[in-house]
What does this fold into?
Amino acid sequence: MKRIMSLLGISVFLTLTLNSAVYSESISSNLTSVDSMEVVTKYSLFSEYYKNKDFNSALPYGWEVIQLNPEKFSKWVYGKMEDALWQMHDSADTAPEVKKAIEDTILSFYDIAIKYNSVEKAYYQARKAFVAETWLELPFEEVTAMYEKAIEYDPNISTYYYNHLGQLYKSKAEEDLEYKTKALDLFTYLNDREPDNQIWSDELESLVDNIDELVELTKKAWLNNKDDAARAWKFASLAMKAGRYSEAVEALEFLTQKSPESLNYWSQLATAYQKTDDLTKAEATFKKLIELEPNEQDNYLNLGIVYKDKGQLSAARTQYQKAASLKNGWGLPIYYEGLLYEQAARNCGSFNFEDKLVYQLAVDTYRKAANTDPSLTQARDRVSALSSSVPTKEDYFFRKYKSGTSIPISGNCYGWIGRSISVP
It folds into this structure.
């Protein structure tokens, strides 16, 4: 019985599936003459059989619906037809003759789906490329052109199909530099699109002997077309990843001029300036970020770090406190404030009583940071590390300070602090 049904399936395919030119002409002639109720009836029968997973019975009606009026049920019929065709093709119960009939008709089916379901045409084009590659094993040039057409229709199609195209490019990379470059471009795009997906970074690294080679390739591509923002970003992001910050600066400056509202470009440029110790430009860039995004706490924290590196400790503290005020429960800026006091005591002091008071202020600040964010283990570590640097009970006793007394921080190096500590 199963054999009979399989042969019936072949008959249906051979009867209803014509070459694409004749079939399209048949469709066009029927659009004006077909009885709309007949199409509805055929679709109802198709849908019912499909729902019951009787694909062998469903498919003839589906083909008739498409032949009679390919637009009326285009939102549903092509998706169900594709599912039925794939289910039958991949089923162990389907006879080889039927699988062959499906393979002979599948590309024509996708051409019709692409033509009459424009909303999903990128999806159907990608699926067409996939079956051409995996089912039919068509030549490399034909398959890659199909995938490229799908991406042209919609650059946001699934990365699954991008990856298939990338693997095809990779298969020719050693014999043709053009395909190596195409593979690099494709996987760089995917790495930008899904920066947390390690697969794309691994693919990029597999294409080159080392990341510096990759940086050189993307740099050359950008220099050959210096007004291309996409190429500039590829080069800049890879140069940053390779630690070649000074080279990234030129591309990032170009990008911020071309897209002055892009937060990402400004952020990366500020980091590049920091890494190259160009603190004056880093300061100006973080100020620009604050102008663009005044409620983003990270910008204030990073500006504070720049001021700290410049030795402007009071200005740094102001920025840390602003950062902390913008996000409840964020102890990191408070921790950085503690580092300012510790740095001041180390740089300015000779470990006298005044210096010990500053260490105590640092410890008090670290404790505040740890209380604000209990996961901030580094703050608790600094409290322990400075336990022998703070004033002892004897230090207070011999100076006749009683518990609860407030002692102002003073000294030549500490005028900027303007704080007091309380005797325990």
Remarks:
- The mean pLDDT is 90.
- The two ends are 94 Å apart (CA to CA).
- The CA atoms of residues 325 and 404 lie 28 Å apart.
- The chain is about 75% helix and 0% strand.
